[in-house]
Amino acid sequence: MRATGHSQDVPLHNTSLGASPPLQGWGSPFVFLQADRLQRSALHQPLMSNVMHSEETIATESEVHVLGCIKRWVSSGFYSAEQIDSMIDDVLEPDCDAAMLRNCVAIEVDLKLSAETGWPATTDCDRLDRAFRDLHEQGICALGNAGYTMSDGYSEISEATANPPPGHYKSYCFYHGQDIERAIEGGGIMIAFGALNDDPVASVAVGKVVCERLRREGFEVEWNGSFETRISLPKFLWQKRTGA
């Protein structure tokens, strides 16, 4: 599998959604592997009835930046409060009030949990997960939150397919951290894909399979039929439940 093909994205932010821990599966070799999917405990207290907004406590530009990171990490749905508390260390600056920013994690989590009560029973993220599970069963290694960049995504795919069940994986698809940030901001989501042997004809065939499965979930799919162009879901609404 080559490390190029789809064009690289310009990072939307200067911080990643976090380093990728060991890949976690769905309980068997023949289920959708989702990068950065960690076991989570029940971390959150009951929702505060009159929760304050995090912005009310922010004083410096550095704190604005860190709060933005916290909001994205919480909104992504991939990280527990404990994980985010640890991730904050990577973006803190000397002029930041670390204790205050750590308190903001609970505020943002409670705001998100409150918002989740108004979400539909099945969100776009649920439908994408379902499509990726089915694609996995077809021999397509499908990863969500696969690192932060295209290069990270290819590395995650290489790791996930290094020791697969014999003959199971022949191709891949994934989205990465920058894609999640774009989706959170309302820009839809992009899906990379291809054949593990880099064959152009086989890669285009993979793209067609991925598009067909995504359309079955009701997504509006945009793709020009070229392996050099990722699949786009322009109307994708990012709503991933905390701990899901």
3D architecture notes:
The protein has 244 residues and is of the alpha+beta class. The chain folds into two domains: 54-116; 124-233, no CATH class. The chain has helices at 61-76, 81-87, 98-116, 124-137, 150-160, 177-184, 200-216, and strands spanning 140-143, 171-174, 189-195, 231-233. It has a four-stranded mixed β-sheet. Helix 4 (124-137) packs across helix 7 (200-216). The longest helix has 19 residues, at 98-116. The radius of gyration is 18 Å and the shape is elongated.
Mean pLDDT: 82
For the sheet with most strands, the description reads: 4 strands, mixed
What shape does the CA trace take?
Answer: elongated
Order of helices and strands: HHHHEHEHEHE
Q: Kindly, what is the distance between the CA atoms of the first and last residues, rounded to a whole number of angstroms?
A: 30 Å
Q: Which structural class should the secondary elements be placed in?
A: alpha+beta
Task: Please tally the β strands and state the result.
Answer: 4
Number of domains: 2
Placed side by side, the strands forming the largest sheet appear as: 1-2-3-4
The radius of gyration over CA amounts to 18 Å
